[in-house]
Amino acid sequence: MRAVEVTALGGPEVLRLVERPDPVPGIGQVLVRVHAAAVHPADLAARTGRIPGGPVPPPFVPGWDIAGQVITVGDRVSGLSPGDTVAGMIPWYLTRGTPGGYAELVAADADWLVPVPAGLDPVLAATVPLNALTAHRALAMLALDAPTILLITGASGGVGGFAAQLTVRAGHTVLAGATHGDDDWVAGLGVHTVLPRSAGLAIDPVPAVLDAVPISGPVLDLAAAGGTLVSTRPAPPIDPDRQVRQETVLVRPDRLALHDLVEAVADGRLRTRVAATLPLAEAAEAHRRAERGGLRGKLVLLP
């Protein structure tokens, strides 16, 4: 099979298309022919070695999110059959490239995958797992029982966009930060107030904050005393006298939640978007575009 390897830690040029032996599914695994693999900031961090737990020694295959077709099924797998279209998240923080998603074939644990409903484009499905599961877990950590006011930074992005929609659906009042020129998209997510980046975060402190960008510093003062701040990366500690609970969200596989999230995208209750698709062989160009920023949606590789 063909796969993209990180051949050395460094810039996009270290990504190379290589031939690797076809993987064989083990116990509890299925072999997936990958139709789409999303490109995430976490992939860029792995390529440069700036990841929790320290760099992964090259060569390795990056990639968290895949969608494709089940080819073969290993022992002790139920609920998935050859021919099924599936999507899922490779927990790359555990696999560290064995496997990774930038490949034509992936031997994936069945528990990482869920069926893709008929009519949902695998390219769209591949944008869901990592970002939507992170948003789902972040909201669980915020523990918003009664309707409240919530600030979400980076609602133009994947995690922030899914989080904004999920909290609106749960009945909360959402103040959402938007990148330059992306106000209409964020407003279309149903949020109460769009905060354009050009205007800054000129709001009073609120009971709950999800720093999904993250931007840390300016956000720390916006969590009201006794409130909660959840961020996607560790943030500096807030003055303990304010009694703000601080948490860092770490994504993990959750098959039940992922099933519901993919279903919600398929039936239009959740929105996601794709900035562009590129062939697998152009993974380096995808990373260059991601580093330049300004994307409206995810880049997706097509093996």
Automatic annotation (TrEMBL):
Pfam families assigned: ADH_N, ADH_zinc_N_2
GO molecular function, one term: oxidoreductase activity
Keyword Cell membrane in annotation: no
Keyword NADP: yes
UniProt-listed Enzyme Commission number(s): 1.-.-.-
Superkingdom assignment: Bacteria
Primary enzyme class: oxidoreductase
Matches recorded under PANTHER family: QUINONE OXIDOREDUCTASE PIG3-RELATED
The protein's name in its UniProt record: NADP-dependent oxidoreductase
Annotated organism of origin: Actinoplanes oblitus
Lineage: Bacteria, Bacillati, Actinomycetota, Actinomycetes, Micromonosporales
